[in-house]
Amino acid sequence: MNETYKSGFVALVGRPNVGKSTLLNYIVGEKIAIMSDKPQTTRNKIQGIYTSETAQLIFIDTPGIHKPKHQLGDFMVRAALSTFREVDLILFVVDVNEPYGQGEKFILEKLKETNTPVFLVLNKIDRMHPEQLLEKIAAYRELYQFAEIIPVSALNGNNVTTLMEQIIRYMDEGPQYYPADEITDHPERFIVSEFIREKIIHLTEEEVPHSIAVVIEEMKERKGGMVYISALVLVERQSQKGIIIGKQGNMLKEIGKRARKDIEALLGSNVYLDLFVKVDKNWRNNRRQLSEYGYDQTHLE
Ligand SMILES: Nc1nc2c(ncn2[C@@H]2O[C@H](COP(=O)(O)OP(=O)(O)OP(=O)(O)O)[C@@H](O)[C@H]2O)c(=O)[nH]1
Predict the structure, then answer these.
(1) What is the DSSP string of 254-286?
(2) Which domains occur in the chain, in start order?
(3) Distance of CA 106 from the midpoint of ligand 1 (Å)
(4) Is the pLDDT of residue 38 over 50?
(5) Which residues are recorded as binding GTP (predicted)?
(6) What is the per-residue pLDDT across 70-127, written as a single tens digit (0 to 9) for each?
(7) In the predicted model, is pLDDT for residue 59 greater than 70?
(8) Distance 195 CA to ligand 1 centre (A)
(9) Which of 105, 240, 253, 254 is most buried per CB count within 10 Å?
C-alpha cells in the first residue's frame, strides 16, 4: 500500500435553499449545519471534515450568496468571495428543479473571477425525470467551463459517492490536517447557538424572519458535570419577541426543550438552558455589533 494521501479544501456555494447543508451533512455524517425549509439559514462558514484512509476533505459551507441588500448581505457575499480564492475546489450547488436565475448568474460571474476549478452539482434529482436532467446538463454546459457536472440527491445520497470520488481525484497530495474524529472546527458555542436558531425558525414557521441572532452569553460546566448555558435571542421587532415567547411562555419553553435535547447530544452531558429574548432594531446594520455577535470578519480582505 503505497497510495499517496490526498487532502484539500472544498467550498460549497449556491443560492439559499439549494441543499448545501443537506449535502454537507450527508457527506460528513453528523448534524453540524443548520437545516431548514427556509432560505439563508447558514450565515457563517461551517467546516465539515471528511476523513478516510486515503483522503481528507475540509468543506467550507459558504453563506447563501445573493445580491447585497443591507450590510449583513454585503458581509455574506464578501465572505463567500474570499472563500473562493482560499480553496482547492468549489462545488457550485444548484437545485436542478429551479430555473437558472439571477442568483445563479450572479454567482457564476463571481466564479469567473477565480482560477479555482468548479464542479456543478445538480441537486434534488430525486424530483426530476431523467430526460429533463439531460437537457439541464446541456444547458448548464453552455454557461461555463465546469470541471465536472455531477447530478446528485443530497437527501437520499444518490450519486454522492461519485461526487466524492471526483472531488478526491482533484485533490493534491497532502497531509491529514485534522484528527480523524474531528468533524468540525467550530467552537461548540457556535453550534449551540445554531441549534437554538434552528428551533426558533422551525417552530415559529413563517412568523419570525431570519433577522434573528442567537448569542451565547455564558456556557459553563457546573458541579456534577451539568452544563449551564445562557443564550440571548435578538429580534428586530417587539411583535417578534412576542411570537418567540408565545402564550404564557409556551413557545420559548418548547424552543428551549428541543434545543436542549440537541445540545445534550452534542456535549454528552446534561444541560440547563436559559433563554432570553431582546429587541434590538438595528443589529443587522451595525458592524460593531455584528462582530460582537460572533460574525468574525478577520478572514475578509
Ligand atoms: N427533494 C430534495 N430535497 C432536498 C435535497 N437536498 C436538500 N433538500 C431540501 O431542501 C431544503 C433546503 O436544504 P438546505 O440544505 O437547508 O439548503 P442550503 O442550501 O444549505 O440553504 P441555506 O443554508 O439557506 O443556504 C431542505 O428542506 C432540504 O430537505 C434533495 O436532494 N432532494
Answers:
(1) HHHHHHHHHHHHHHTS-EEEEEEEEE-TTGGG-
(2) 6-173 (3.40.50.300), 188-292 (3.30.300.20)
(3) 20
(4) no
(5) 14-21, 61-65, 123-126
(6) 555 666 667 677 778 878 999 999 999 999 988 888 889 888 988 899 999 999 999 9
(7) yes
(8) 17
(9) 240
